[in-house]
# Entry
Amino acid sequence: MYAAERQQEILRLAREAGRIDVLSLADRFQVTAETVRRDLKTLDRAGLVRRVHGGAIPAGRLDFEPDPGARLTGADENDRIAAAALAELPEGGSIVLDAGAAVARLAAAVPVDIALTVVTHALPVAARLADHAGIDLHFVGGRVRRRTLAAVDAWALRAYAEIRADVAFLATNGFSAQGLTTPDLAEAAVKRAAMAAARRVVLLADSSKAGQEHFARFGSFTDVDLLITDQGLAPAQQSAIEAAGTEVVLV
# Structure
């Protein structure tokens, strides 16, 4: 097994179990403890796990502001959504990455050999891509919301007003034919600015968000070119979204 394959499996185990230890992993993969420590160091530097005494824990808990009761669900769906979104990356182009679970997983899955200019206001996303050799990373500053670790307010809005990216990858807490919503007005404003800063908008959202409505509205499907979601989206919901002119891909 190659190191990259072993590291991917270690990440999967960490997300499933919540914690992994060096000695168990060494026994599982029939490698030395030092090899496992190097793997964990690599994953830690990529922002995918956080090393603790004797092992590591997944870093995914910092990725997004989940709805109540949804903290432990949606990981598999978001991994599939992120994998499908890789096809939308413009090689040699520029993208905006929003704060959100599926978007953070997309950041973690960006190939090591791709060249991209990336703009983000999400601290976890920036941390994951900071050491990526092929990426020209631009971090949008502002007041950081502790719950989502996303920069908001005037500084962030001014920064997005100054760029025009190829693709914006957006997240949402709720979506329906009536619009896209999130709990916080400041985050909604930044999402709206991020959408306006790109020629193409791709929404990454699992089907549990469908039909949910939150306090702050930041867009509609007339603003979205593509929705990537999972097979749980109801046919009636899909039809209503497509009627607005948005392409829907189910994974």
About this structure: Residues 210 and 233 are 7 Å apart (CA to CA).
